[in-house]
Design goal:
Two copies of one chain form a homodimer.
Chain A (H helix, E strand, L loop, with lengths): L1 H24 L14 E8 L6 H4 L1 E7 L1 H9 L7 E11 L4 E15 L9 E7 L9 H13 L13
């Protein structure tokens, strides 16, 4: 029991310290990606009802990239100002195999900013629903960094441009 | 039995006559939609394993529109040269709710050509896989017309631009 509490405390401490570190890095807010629905569609996926995370993650995701990021996908080098959007859309299942799109759940954004080496030069944020101003708790954004930027064994941009 | 044969014969006659009619209309081939992956992504859907047509229709579909067709979605009037693409992509299901994209199955294309009133001013065709020249049998294309253009109670363009 004591060991469990210790682990929980350590985990909270780590998360808080990491969030503080990121807040300092991220003093320049990530802008809402105006016009991203006119950007190139990189690829899509779906999290279906078989997922243990369905309540949270269920639905389509569509990835869009601005022209700078398209250069990055093609050359492997993402220039300053590259923006990639992960557009999360509810799924509507008619039970007969027809799965269509519902409302927007959230919009994840990553932007390339050379100034920040410690997160691979990218900043991350999330916009809730169709809002251009509302964000989730900082701990959610910490999760973006932890997976995309803090694990140096992984590429920071996970997706590839589908043909 | 005789009645059944009569129905089959009538159905084949109708299909052949209709295909012939369309071939005459469609003397100008539908061009391959070069660069459509850079067009605006209109919306998506998925045909999942619960569909009785899964073997044929299973997978993602992404709809893309050229600039003329985007004007059409926004104004309700599709100008000459509007092109809409229905991009059919295999789905890969890991059994844990993660459904990702596989290979292209086919590409459906519709193009607005005012010259042809009898099919609502649109021509239709399908390209197999990633091919820019291979098409399915004419009867498949007849199906496009029958559903989109011949039934005057329906709109010819079914999709709407998602926000």
């Amino acid at each position: 029991m004591k060991y469990k509490l210790f682990l929980i405390a350590m985990s909270l401490t780590f998360t808080a310290a990491y969030a503080f570190h990121l807040n300092r890095l991220n003093s320049q807010p990530v802008p809402y990606p105006e016009g991203y629905r006119n950007w190139i569609h990189v690829k899509s996926g779906l999290t279906g009802s078989a997922s243990p995370m369905f309540n949270k993650l269920g639905g389509f995701h569509h990835i869009y990239a601005n022209p700078e990021a398209i250069t990055g996908y093609k050359t492997g080098k993402f220039p300053e100002g590259s923006m990639i959007v992960f557009d999360k859309i509810e799924m509507i299942d008619d039970g007969k195999g027809n799965i269509s799109e519902g409302k927007r759940k959230w919009l994840d954004v990553m932007i390339k900013r050379e100034r920040s080496d410690s997160t691979g030069g990218w900043d991350f944020d999330e916009f809730l629903g169709d809002s251009k101003t509302e964000h989730p708790a900082a701990v959610v954004i910490t999760g973006c960094y932890r997976c995309h930027a803090a694990d140096k064994t992984r590429r920071i941009v996970f997706s590839q441009l589908r043909n």
